[in-house]
Amino acid sequence: MTSSQDLAASEAEKNIVKAKAAPPEVRHARAPVSADSLKHRELRDGEWWRRLYPDVGEEEFLSHVWQMRNSAYGEEKLVDLIQGIAPDDFIEDLKKGFHLVPMAVRVTPYLLGLIDWDNPWEDPIRRQFIPLASQLYPDHPMLTLDSLHEQKDAPVEGLTHRYQDKALFLVMDTCPVYCRFCTRSYAIGVDTDTVEKVNLRVDPKRWEKAFEYIESRPELEDIVISGGDTYNLPAKHVRAIGERLLNMKNIRRIRFATKGIAVMPMKVLSDDKWLDAITDVLNLGRKLHKEVCIHTHFNTPNEITEITRRAMNVLFERGMTVRNQCVLQNGVNDSAETMTLLTKRLSEINVQPYYVYQHDMVQGVEDLRTTVQANIDIEKMVRGVTAGFNTAVHVVDAPGGGGKRDVHSFDYYNRETGVSVYTAPSVKPGAFFLYFDPLRELSDEIQAAWMDPKKQKEMCDQAIAETMRLRQNR
Questions:
Q1: Distances from the Cα of 319 to the Cαs of 42, 286, 332, in angstroms?
Q2: What are the Cα distances from residue 429, in Å, to 403, 426, 473?
Q3: Model pLDDT for residues 47-83, shown as the tens digit of each residue
Q4: Distance (Å, rounded) from C-alpha 287 to C-alpha 276?
Q5: Domains of the chain
Q6: 393 in Cβ contact with 405 (< 8 Å)
Q7: DSSP letter at 310?
Q8: Collapsing DSSP states into helix, strand and coil, what is residue 412?
C-alpha cells in the first residue's frame, strides 16, 4: 500500500471513530414544550400563610389540631381575621352573603392563607367557600335541596342504594370545611337562615341498621363511606367501620370519601392515630384481597401545595390509592387551561383524576353552575394532554337519582331552553332525567319562560317528547 493509500485509510478510520463518538441526530416528533406546560411541577412553598397569621411558624401551622381550632367558622370570626387585609367593600359584601345561602361557612387556615386577598372577588378558592351577595343569582326554578334523591333512594337512614352493587354510606354530617356547592346542603353542617338540616350525626346505632341492610343484600359489593367527611371520624370509628365492612362476605371494595387532603393536608402529617387507623384498614383489605382507597376532592390547582405533596407522599408510601372527584364551577375551574393544570398537578402528587362532575342542581349556588356544553367543550380539550388513566371522566350525576352519566351521553340537549335529557337503563330503566343549564346563560325570553309554571312544564314535556322521537328513529 502506498503512502497516499495509508494516509487515506488512516483518515477513514478517524472518521469512523468520530462518527461513533458523535451523538446521533435527535428527531423530535413534537415541537419543544413551553415553560408553562411544566407549570404543574411548581407547587407553592414557603410560609405563605404569614400574611394572615404572622406569628404562626411552620410547626404550628402543620398541626391538624391548630388548623381545626383556628378555622373560620361563622361570620364574626372570619371578619375579625381578614379585617385590614381584605378590602372593606368585600367584607360588607360577604356579611350580606352569609345570610342568603344554605351552607354555613367554615374554612381552614390552610385555605384562607391560599386566597388572594388583593383580589378576593375573583379568587377560585374564595368562590367555593365564602359567599358574596353581589355574586349570587336567583335560583333556577327547577333547583332543589336534594337534587339527586339520596333520601328517596335510602332504604335505611343515611344509606343510599341506587346502583345494583354499590351503596353510599353517610356516616356523619360534619366536615373540616363547608363547601358552598355541597350536594348535601340538606344535611351537612348547622342550620342556616334558609335551611333546617336533616340529622345524620355520628351514631353507631344508626350505623348498625345500615350494616344489617348491607349484609342482607348479596349484590352489594362496593361501599362509599362518606358524609360529611371521614376526615372528621375519630380513628376508632375509621377502624371499626372499615373492619366491619371488609369482614362481610359480599363486600369487595370500600372507599373513604374525604375532602380533607385538599383542605387540611397536615392531618395526614400530624394525626398519627387517624393515619394508622386507615392504614390498618388498607392492610386488612389486602389480606382479604379486597380494595380500600381514598376518594378526595381538589377543584383547583391553587389548592395543591408542597404540604399537599408531603401528605400524599406519606399515603403513597403506605400503598394507599387516592382518586379525585372534582366539581366543574363557574369562575373556579371552568376553562381548559385550569382543568389541564389541575389534571397534571394531581398526577404530579400521585392522585388519580377520576370524575369531573357537572355542578349538581342544588339551591343557593346558581352563580357556580355552568352549562352542559361548557363541560363538554372542556373535556374535549383536556383529553389527550396526558395518559387516559390519568384523565377524569366528565359526568352529570343525573337529577332525580339516575346516577352518573357521561356528560356527552345525553339523549337530547336543547341549548336554547337549556334542557338536557339523560337516561340510565341499568339504574332506573324507562325513566328520563333532566338537567337544566343556569338561567344567566339563556336568552331573556327563555329566562322569562322559566318563571311561568305552565311554560316550565311545556319545555320539559317538549324535551322528553323529542327524546322519545329521536330514540324511535334510531
A1: 25, 10, 31
A2: 12, 6, 19
A3: 999 999 999 999 999 999 999 999 998 889 999 999 9
A4: 16
A5: 52-135 (no CATH), 159-408 (3.20.20.70), 410-474 (no CATH)
A6: no
A7: H
A8: strand
